[in-house]
UniProtKB/TrEMBL annotation:
It holds the Pfam family HATPase_c_2. One of its GO terms (molecular function) is protein serine/threonine kinase activity. Residues 69-91 have a biased composition (Basic and acidic residues). Residues 69-92 are annotated as: Disordered. Transmembrane segments: none annotated. Keywords: ATP-binding, Kinase, Nucleotide-binding, Serine/threonine-protein kinase, Transferase. This is ATP-binding protein. Residues 2-119 form the Histidine kinase/HSP90-like ATPase domain. It comes from the Bacteria. It comes from Streptomyces antnestii.
Amino acid sequence: MPALRTSARSARDAVRDRLRAWEVPGDTCCDAVLLVSELTTNAVLHTDSGHVLCGLTLTGDERRLRIELHDADRTPVRPPEHRAGPGEESGRGLLLVQQLADRWGSARSTRAEGKVVWAELTSYPSYL
């Protein structure tokens, strides 16, 4: 998708639809949608990428959901060094990712020229 602010909404909608089709439970779905929104927004605001690529993978046992956001920037993403103050409008996205995800990180992308920022959530199928 194009690296525009409006892409975060498109990514949220697409991810929500896919996770509902996969029957991912509501809490996990909500967390995943928020993670996608934060990762997309970070890529759009903090890289010079023209496009971003969002990917979802549900592992074979359907208990782990992996979210990936690929962009053209090669700068690795690191955990936030400080918390945003009450008057600051930004600076909380990666803190949310760190709090919501069971695991997260960044690496060189195999699907784009730059990096991938990924997050994993433990998911439990709705039939359990």
